[in-house]
Specification:
Number of strands: 23
Oligomer: single chain
Shape: elongated
CATH architecture of one domain: Orthogonal Bundle
Strand order of the largest sheet: 8-7-6-15-14-13
Number of helices: 19
Length: about 650
């Protein structure tokens, strides 16, 4: 007896040591296999994109590579009824087992033997997730691999992350994968807002996705849906719905991420698309249109129609139904002649230079500028008018006169500093025809430029992505921008919201009709024309684009511009903002080395001192400009000093 009592603890220690060694060996083998055969999560990388508006509403979706509608899904984004139904139906012990439920496997095997065919697979949701990650033929070997992968998934991921795999990859027939795509295609709703009957159908379809597609096998799908639901859930969808696809020309250029937040406003985007499609019905044959709505202060695009085209009786426009005819064209980026639409910026620069004011008398009479002899649109002349009247009536000769004073090259360089590159024919230089549309510009650039008139003379490229943007660049003085805005604030000829400033433009032979306007919060640009650039007989910006501009402002919350301040207030504001500024050349300007360059300043207390690389440039003490002839191509530093010690600088290049 004594001997046995002494030996038994030894045997227990030996037995425990053996079991521990076996356990260590098993763990080591498992770790080794895990490292040798890591989880393949590549299917979770190849995702489609959800394009969201500024408030997180779904604007459009893009498929994953290969045309598969696969959108990332997470348990936190699902309606609770969907998760509860899924777990209760497919794996009621999901939250507690280690990836495999041996009792479910034994039960499934017994049912299969009794029935003589596969009745139940006994797979847990974790095993199903493993199968979705790495699809394989249904056989014993595949089942064993799924078992091993299930343990791996449980070791590396949380239960909710495993659910996310199933929710992202579950098949819903055809090229639909994942609950988000299934919910949108069958119910046109987010899975966050599913009702019990809808949730039950989305749990049912992945069991046999092709055999249970509601659009092909409605009776089968409804039967299984009701069995899961426990009662009659009513009708089921009989057709697959088009997935959201607003602003299609824009979304193709956005980053390919699972979710992309934009600056769009979805209700406004939908309203603008409907308006464009309606207006396109009444346009001449093969004529298209493009519209942009932006926030004037933030320079964010709120809604955009990049091309709505009518051909015969068939209309296609950017919308939920797809791209349609010509849908790949982004006409907001097409380079076109702006006609008279750039005139307000000539006047603004002339006003800030002091060469003219709103009440300055101007002669609209025949005049030659060398070999150039502009005429008004109606081939008549108005005679003596004020500068404000000339701008409102879009008279050509006064605009060319002011551009001659401002300087075409300086005008083009200033717009370039504001983010707008005027396109001219190869080898051409900036010249007086710029005043009448003698260079190309895009609707997106022109609309962004007008935001400078709408605010304080600062502009920046309009943006669509909800990301931090650079500070706008002041290319006009706040006073001159406000003066031009006041001149352009006038009633719409055919009626529309009050308090809107607007300007039209018509290119040669009616190829392009423009209207751009702004109120206290919004800036809107409209272009109408043919994508191939052929003329539209009789087309004008006032006739084709301006009525549409008025209707767009009718869609927006009222934000009328306030009346201009009194003269006294204007003088106080002018003194408060009368700081020294370098008007020309702007920073980083690239100038031609042909002839002298006029350096122009604004503000500051005279006399002014002009310096090039620290060396003074001769100038009249009473004036705010100086003539300088570049000695050679290269980089130069321009500096202006005023009597109080204020300074303005720019680094430029001479070609």
């Amino acid at each position: 007896m004594v001997s046995r009592r002494l030996v038994s603890p030894c045997r227990l220690v030996l037995a425990f040591g053996g079991l521990l060694a076996i356990a260590i060996a098993i763990v080591a083998a498992a770790v080794g296999l895990d490292r040798a055969y890591p989880l393949d999560l590549s299917r979770l990388v190849n995702m489609g994109s959800e394009i969201l508006d500024r408030d997180g509403r779904l604007v459009a979706v893009r498929p994953a590579p290969g045309g598969i509608w696969r959108l990332r899904a997470e348990a936190a984004d699902m309606a609770s009824v969907l998760l509860e139904t899924l777990v209760a139906t497919e794996d009621r012990h999901f939250w507690h087992h280690p990836g495999v439920n041996p009792f479910a496997l034994l039960r499934a095997a017994w049912q299969d033997v009794r029935a003589g065919h596969v009745v139940s697979g006994g797979s847990t949701l974790t095993m199903q997730a493993a199968r979705l990650l790495e699809p394989r033929p249904r056989n014993i070997r595949s089942k064993l691999i799924e078992l091993a992968r299930a343990f791996q998934l449980e070791a590396h991921l949380s239960k909710r992350e495993i659910l996310g795999i199933w929710l992202t990859l579950a098949p819903y027939g055809g090229n639909l994968e994942g609950v988000r795509a299934g919910s949108l295609a069958w119910f046109a709703t987010s899975p966050r807002h599913l009702e019990p009957a809808q949730a039950a159908l989305l749990v049912a379809i992945p069991r046999r996705p092709e055999a249970l597609r509601p659009d092909r096998h409605a009776d089968r799908a409804r039967t299984l849906r009701d069995r899961i639901l426990g009662f009659d859930g009513g009708d089921i969808p009989l057709a697959r719905l088009a997935l959201p696809r607003h602003a299609p020309q824009q979304i193709v250029a956005l980053p390919h991420r699972p979710r992309v937040r934009t600056t769009l406003d979805l209700p406004l985007q939908i309203a603008l698309e409907r308006l464009a499609a309606e207006r396109a019905q009444s346009l001449p044959d093969r004529v298209s249109l493009a519209i942009m709505v932006a926030d004037a202060a933030s320079h964010e695009i709120r809604a955009i129609v990049s091309g709505a085209i009518v051909s015969g009786a068939t209309v296609s426009s950017a919308g939920a139904g797809g791209e349609g005819k010509g849908g790949a064209l982004d006409l907001t980026q097409a380079v076109r002649s702006p006609g008279s639409a750039l005139k307000p910026f000539i006047y603004a620069m002339a006003f800030q230079d002091g060469v003219a004011g709103p009440d300055t008398p101007m002669d609209d009479v025949p005049h030659r500028f060398g070999a150039y002899a502009p005429e008004d649109f109606d081939r008549a002349f108005a005679g003596s008018v004020t500068a404000a009247e000339a701008l409102r009536r879009s008279l050509n000769v006064p605009a060319v006169m002011l551009l001659d004073r401002v300087g075409p090259q300086r005008f083009a360089t200033t717009l370039r500093a504001a983010g707008v590159r005027l396109r001219m024919r190869p080898g051409a230089v900036a010249s007086l025809p710029l005043a009448l549309g003698g260079a190309g510009i895009t609707l997106r650039e022109l609309t962004g430029l007008y935001s400078g008139l709408a605010t304080n003379g600062a502009a920046s490229p309009l943006r669509l992505l909800a990301e931090p943007a650079p500070d706008p660049l002041a290319f006009l003085s706040a006073r001159s921008a406000a003066t031009v805005a006041d001149i352009l604030t006038q009633p719409f000829p055919e009626g529309g919201p009050a308090g809107v400033a607007w300007k039209t433009g018509t290119s040669w032979a009616g190829r392009d009709a423009w209207a751009v306007g702004f109120d206290a919060r919004h800036v809107v640009g409209v272009w109408v024309g043919r994508p191939d650039g052929t003329p539209i007989p009789g087309a004008t910006g006032r006739g084709l684009a301006l009525p549409l501009l008025a209707r767009v402002f009718g869609l927006l919350p009222a934000a009328p511009r306030t009346p201009p301040p009194t003269a006294a207030k204007s003088q106080v504001a002018a003194r408060a903002t009368d700081t020294l500024r370098l008007l020309f050349p702007p920073p980083d300007a690239v100038l031609s080395g042909d002839g002298p360059v006029t350096i122009r300043a604004m503000g500051g207390q005279r006399p002014l001192t002009f310096l090039i690389d620290g060396a003074p440039v001769p100038a009249d003490p009473a004036r705010r400009e100086a003539a300088w002839t570049p000695p050679a191509p290269g980089f130069y530093r321009v500096t202006i000093l005023d009597a109080t010690g204020g300074s303005a600088r720019a680094r430029i290049r001479v070609r």
